[in-house]
Amino acid sequence: MSRRPLRIGNASGFYGDRSSALTEMLTGGPLDVLTGDYLAELTMLILGRDRLKAPDLGYARTFLRQLEEGLGLAHERGVRIVTNAGGLHPAGLAAAVRALAAKVGVPVTVAHVEGDDLTARHEGALTANAYLGGAGITACLRAGADVVVTGRVTDAALVSGPAAWWFDWSAEDHDRLAGAVVAGHVLECGTQATGGNYSFFTAHDVRRPGFPLAEISPDGSAVITKHPGTGGVVSAGTVTAQLLYETQGPRYLGPDVTARLDTVRLTDDGPDRVRISGVRGEAPPPTLKVGVTRIGGWRNEVVFVLTGLDVEAKAELVRAQLADALEGVADARWTLARTDHADADTEETASALLRLVVRDPSPDRVGRALTSAAVELALGSYPGFHVTAPPGPAQPYGVFASTSVPATQVPHTAVLPDGTPLQIPAPPTPPSARPAEPTASPSGPAEPTASPSGPAEPAAFPASPAFEARGSGGGAPEGVGGAAPAVSGVEPRETVSGAGPRETVRAPLGRLAGARSGDKGGDANVGVWVATGPAWDWLRDTLTVELFRALLPETRGLTVLRHELPGLRALNFTVTGILGDGVASGHRFDPQAKALGEWLRARHLDIPVHLLPPPEGTGT
């Protein structure tokens, strides 16, 4: 029996997101299911430290505060709530929700999903959790749960699980499940799908974007939209940006299905409505990703302000004065940010920042002794000496790593509203779909490897057409990025017959392309997309791995993988190891690579004039 589309919304993209979002989504328009995503790699570390302090903690307590008002609203409107706020203790949060429901007098049934916690199998780990799929959520909803609480499931499972319940899909409905997974990936980060963190934000009013929702159809296609009257925008660009976020290759591997991102098609479906269709699915791999966090040691930092003249000499003096204090410290990194301007008319804009970050297994080496050494320089160092904040004690930092485990070895369990535990079997994986030597994937389980010049996937996963080494290999000096270079058997695209190469102009890549970047453990990804076919032809031929490294020199010496997604007019780059041990280790100035894409957009190269939009204010 066919059913109407499922209307499923999101009210949280991270632990600490807008507290009023749950109420806003429940009152803003009709919904069938409302989800909340609270978990990230850093969140698991935070919850792990909470659990050390009190074993009955380990879940996102902010969710309970949001639910005090929202639970009654959801019950009145018949909206099911599905959330991964259970973190490390889903049973504890489920019990807390029941207690809250009794307190506010709302008769709801609560179920939870568990089995992801594998900490006991990883000696010395603070947390270790397998990324489960949506089948446990489906089982809880089929049993009549009004609220479903999970631990570590994949972010997209919060949508694919309810979709499988709503339409009664089976584990073999790969195309339908893949469509729901793609919709879930768009929704999972909340307002990033409705104009938040969007490259072309100046074209829209994104001061307070509304949260997104999806209308999922029985065939797995979906329309991404938002409640009427809410801020922000839903466009092909905002949806593309989120589709590229924290992904790697064309295959987005998950515990329930492998979604083929290279089959995604986006079409306008009206104002603030974008239709996702054509998504193909394949069997999931036999393994699940396991995210493992550990206490890596202790860290501290001091930021010195260098004002006016002789900035480089002032920085060198501080480094020399602290050399003895840093002797024996395991890791000490200096970064000089030249934020100063010559002949500046404010003191702040005349100043540069010298940042010292220290890390060590012992808190003593990077604690008060070190920060006191920095303070003692106050009257005997460079002229104008001061720091941005008083030095503090050493703080513990975490490291994140991922491994994999056979799905059959994880006790995926749905605890139904009546307390009955229901074991969820691992989905069937045909032998032909099993990669020979998997590596960890950001979407959950294992993913085949790719080479810097394109996919080099196992025979069981047919590769996309090989990526040619097109464009300049020497960075972006003058003359690079204009007319497309000749490729064997292919005519240059940016030439006019009989007229030679078209005119180019030196401009930031961001005049033409959008980008979004993010982190997965120690790796970063940068997705880059354009809006038109001619611009895609140029981007595909020009932005090679070599040019990418030249534009972002901090990626030199690291493995950079490049993937083409023609249906999205997009390239996706993965930079291995640029984030060290992950966000919690404080390895970089931008530890989650959130702005790596914007740095790329700010770099200049030669762009064909006819591809660029007219300057603002020209009226053309």
Question: Features of this protein?
Answer:
620 residues, 11-stranded mixed beta sheet, 13 helices, alpha+beta, 6-stranded antiparallel beta sheet, globular
- Report the biggest beta sheet as strand number plus sense, adding barrel if it closes: 11 strands, mixed
Beta content comes to: 25-35%
Strand line-up of the largest beta sheet = 11-12-8-7-1-2-3-6-4-19-20
What's the end-to-end separation, in Å?
52 Å
Total DSSP E strands = 32
**Outline type:** globular
Could you estimate the helical fraction of the residues in percent? Answer: 10-25%
User: What's the mean pLDDT score?
Assistant: 88
- Rg for CA atoms: 26 Å
Q: Tally the helices: what do you get?
A: 13
Determine the structural class based on helices, strands and strand pairing. Answer: alpha+beta
Low-confidence stretches: 433-477, 483-500
Verbal overview:
The chain is of the alpha+beta class. It has 13 helices and 32 strands. The strands form eight sheets. Strands 11-12-8-7-1-2-3-6-4-19-20 form an eleven-stranded mixed β-sheet, sandwiched between helices. The chain is globular and about 70 Å long.
In short:
By secondary structure, this protein is of the alpha+beta class.
Fold blueprint:
Blueprint: E1 6-10, H1 21-28, E2 33-36, H2 41-53, H3 61-77, E3 80-83, H4 90-104, E4 110-114, E5 127-130, H5 135-142, E6 147-150, H6 157-167, H7 174-187, E7 212-216, E8 222-226, H8 236-243, E9 251-253, E10 258-260, E11 265-268, E12 274-277, E13 280-282, E14 287-307, H9 311-321, E15 331-337, E16 351-360, H10 368-375, E17 386-387, E18 395-406, E19 413-415, E20 421-423, E21 439-440, E22 446-447, E23 450-451, E24 454-455, E25 495-496, E26 500-501, E27 504-508, E28 514-520, E29 523-529, H11 533-542, H12 545-551, E30 560-565, E31 570-575, H13 596-602, E32 604-608
